[in-house]
Amino acid sequence: MARFSFGEEEEEENEMESRANNKRKGQSPTEGGNQNKSQKSAGDAEQLRSGIEDKMGGISVTIDPDALDCFICCEPLRPPLYQCVNGHVACRACSIKLPQNKCPNCSQAIDFTRCRFLEKIIESIKSPCCYSEHGCNKTLSYPEIFSHQETCVHAPCFCPIPKCTFSGTPEKISTHFRSHHESSAIDFQYGKQFKASLAKSEPYIVLPSENGLLFLLLNDKHDKGNNLSVACIRPGGSTGSDFVYELMVSNAESSLQLKASAINVRKWEGVYPSKVFLLVPQNFCSSYVDIVLNVCIKSG
């Protein structure tokens, strides 16, 4: 669905076209009108056309974003685009994976005919970042918009405490946390080992740093034990130092250790790292209730 709004420019363009046609036919702009108007110079007409073209440099368009998604992967269409004989459009990455090159919508063959008209439309769409009010000044093409939003360094972060809706920069989140939720945290200094204790059923504890960032010691409990890892509350594309953490859990006979890079999260939504974590078996700790471990977070 699209709506094009030209406003007064459309009326001026029609008037200009009418005058130009009348001049080519040797007629006056209006029947019985002033003879001086019928003798309007070609230079004046060209000046009017130029003014209209300047105004028409951009138009206001409203488009349903779903109309610009690939019907196979449901992601924004990225040129080159291909279509089946019935006009169903797919991005190249999806179309070449289809069994027997058949369209899932109508079972007709996708014959790798380029849909260049739609490619031009998509490539012409420009939009400011949705986080412009937070400081991002980038203007993006349509295929770049969504991937940029995932890594924009100006994207707001959210307080990790359940039911708290405060959002802002990582520094503002830290200030808010210290003012409203300080009692539920363990402060630390970079490069110095500290002891942390969390209940085996506790999903995470908050670790405020010395430079205004919040970290989360994550605890993913499951049947085999607990997966421990560390996350930093900041945008995914943040520049600057990467953070490396070390975790160590010991009992009377042995110890478990992990050294890894902290992940970045803007908002804690209960999704734990699935590849890098320290697995603490269910009966490894002497306590049946808590996990006591040594933690060290270093700024790279």
UniProtKB/TrEMBL annotation:
The keyword Phosphoprotein does not apply. InterPro entries: Sina-like_RING, SINL_plant, Znf_RING/FYVE/PHD, Znf_SIAH. One of its GO terms (molecular function) is ubiquitin protein ligase activity. This is RING-type E3 ubiquitin transferase. PROSITE patterns: ZF_SIAH. Coiled coil: none annotated. Residues 1-46 are annotated as: Disordered. Belongs to the SINA (Seven in absentia) family. One of its GO terms (biological process) is protein ubiquitination. Keywords: Metal-binding, Transferase, Ubl conjugation pathway, Zinc, Zinc-finger. Its EC number is 2.3.2.27. Residues 27-41 have a biased composition (Polar residues). E3 ubiquitin-protein ligase that mediates ubiquitination and subsequent proteasomal degradation of target proteins. E3 ubiquitin ligases accept ubiquitin from an E2 ubiquitin-conjugating enzyme in the form of a thioester and then directly transfers the ubiquitin to targeted substrates. It probably triggers the ubiquitin-mediated degradation of different substrates. It catalyses: S-ubiquitinyl-[E2 ubiquitin-conjugating enzyme]-L-cysteine + [acceptor protein]-L-lysine = [E2 ubiquitin-conjugating enzyme]-L-cysteine + N(6)-ubiquitinyl-[acceptor protein]-L-lysine. Residues 124-182 form the SIAH-type domain.
